[in-house]
Amino acid sequence: MTASDVATLRADGLEKSYDDLHVLRGVNFNIKRGNIFALLGSNGAGKTTVIKILATLLKPDAGTATVAGFDVVAQAAKVRESISLTGQFAAVDEILTGRENLVLMARLRRLKDASQIATDLLAQFELADAADRRVGTYSGGMRRRLDIAMSLIGNPPVIFLDEPTTGLDPQARLEVWKCIRGLAGEGTTVLLTTQYLDEAEQLADQIAILHDGRIIANGTLAELKRLLPPAKIEYVEKQPSLEEVFLAVIGAGRGASPDARSSFDTTQ
Predict the structure, then answer these.
(1) Residue-wise pLDDT tens digits, 59-109
(2) Beta 62-67 vs 206-211: how paired, if at all?
(3) Which residue range is the domain that position 191 belongs to?
(4) Would you list the DSSP string of 157-224?
(5) Same domain, yes or no, for 124 and 245?
(6) Is 228 exposed, middle or buried (0-12, 13-18, 19+ CB in 10 A)?
């Protein structure tokens, strides 16, 4: 068995209730090292509750969970040293510059060479040109990239991303997707919750659907697609998606051209 075959995250029979509300009713999954695991579900399905348990912010009523080999209840301190959690909204200080945010976080973690750590992360997340600007001047995508960069200080093997692209425009979402793929490529295990199904399709090695407190489907995208019978094929002209149109018009998509942009110019 190789290191990549070992489950970095494991949940066995997790249950959690709030008075008479049963949020989790026996959740089970295993996530391998370096994989991106997308946890899907409607509002109130229990996605955030799962993350809070894995991050030691909540204790399960029943069942067990391990993160990087540590039990989330019995070894909570070790779990916290092994993870980073990024919520739905960027937790950055808008008064400070991007560099100052990173240096501050490195110092809070009592790491040496905080300045060099900041420089390396700014380069990795393509923020070097904006390093000394106040974060209040950053776009939404830049703030989110900085937020993820801050969460990587200390090199945690596991990162939780709770709806990381909520409220971002299409181009900013693509920027964040690139960051997430890069994390997994370097061996970081990513647990991602999202309500955007295309996000899970684009990023996830493994997808689980949480419904009524249970995982009702779990597998690769190809495996999940086999749960439904194949659709009848109809040969029709493929129309561009709205995302493709948007990126073409602003000149950021494949095949974008001045002609494509000028055809949408209403000022002529």
Answers:
(1) 999 999 999 999 999 999 999 999 998 876 667 899 999 999 999 999 988
(2) unpaired
(3) 3-231
(4) SEEEEESTTTT--HHHHHHHHHHHHHHHHTT-EEEEE-S-HHHHHHH-SEEEEEETTEEEEEE-HHHH
(5) no
(6) exposed
